[in-house]
Amino acid sequence: MAKSLPHNLIEIRRDWGELSAYERFEAFVALILTFLIAAVIAVAVWRLTFDVVDTLVLRSLNPLEHGVFQAVFGEILTVLIALEFNHTLRYVVTREWGIIQAKIVILIAVLALVRKIIVTDLSAMAPDALAAEAALILALGITYWLMRERDDRLRLARRPGRGAGARDGAS
Questions:
Q1: What is the pLDDT of residues 104-151, one digit of tens each?
Q2: CA 162/CA 159 separation, integer angstroms
Q3: Which of 24, 109, 129, 169 has the fewest other C-beta atoms within 10 Å?
Q4: Confidence label for 169 from pLDDT (cuts 50, 70 and 90)
Q5: Which span out of 16-25, 42-51, 96-105, 147-156 was modeled with the highest average pLDDT?
Q6: Helices marked H in 4-126
Q7: Rounded Cα gap, residues 48 and 76, in angstroms
Q8: How far apart are CA 74 and CA 55, in angstroms?
Q9: In whole angstroms, what is the distance from residue 164 CA to residue 155 CA?
Q10: What is the pLDDT of residues 6-17, one digit of tens each?
Q11: Between the CA atoms of 132, 134, 139 and 144, what dihedral angle is there, to the nearest 10 degrees?
Q12: At 162, phi and psi to the nearest 5?
């Protein structure tokens, strides 16, 4: 039986010699990207903290005012998008997933589009641009749903004692 790929940093160090040159390269690049994105996240959280304190405390602006809400929530979503991206890279470094996970990329794209919609004054947007963004979100949502349905069917088919078409009522 073939040996499974390492799934954490300790196993990667232990099995480094057995990894192919490309697997080593991929893990190394993912590790560097993880540290770089972590640095970006740290700076973004620092700036977010400074901006929130400055905006809401020092300038005494109302967080329920639309413009203030858009600015603060947009910054928060930017940090969350970076965190999700960095979280995904962790799985690449530990060899649990390959370098590209389409479902995660789709979710990050949806988050980015939602962030754009939140920080944009929709009344100032051209109707065709608004329709295009709506179509993008709808297409990404449908694509994610189809991929999730496929994965759910595959997972169900792999369960012992279940047929390929069996359903257990869980969603």
A1: 888 888 989 988 888 888 888 899 999 999 999 999 999 989 888 887
A2: 6
A3: 169
A4: very low
A5: 42-51
A6: 9-15, 21-52, 66-93, 102-119
A7: 7
A8: 14
A9: 9
A10: 555 666 667 677
A11: 140
A12: -115, 140
Exposed/middle/buried for residue 93 (C-beta within 10 Å: 0-12, 13-18, 19+)? buried
Listed as own residue / partner, the contacts of 99-105 with beta carbons closer than 8 Å and 24 or more positions apart are 99/26, 99/30, 102/147, 103/144, 103/147, 103/148, 103/151
Which residue carries 């960095």 as its tokens? 86
Distance CA 148, CA 78 (A): 25
Cβ contact 115:137 at 8 Å? no
> What is the sign of the dihedral through the CA atoms of 154, 158, 160 and 164?
positive
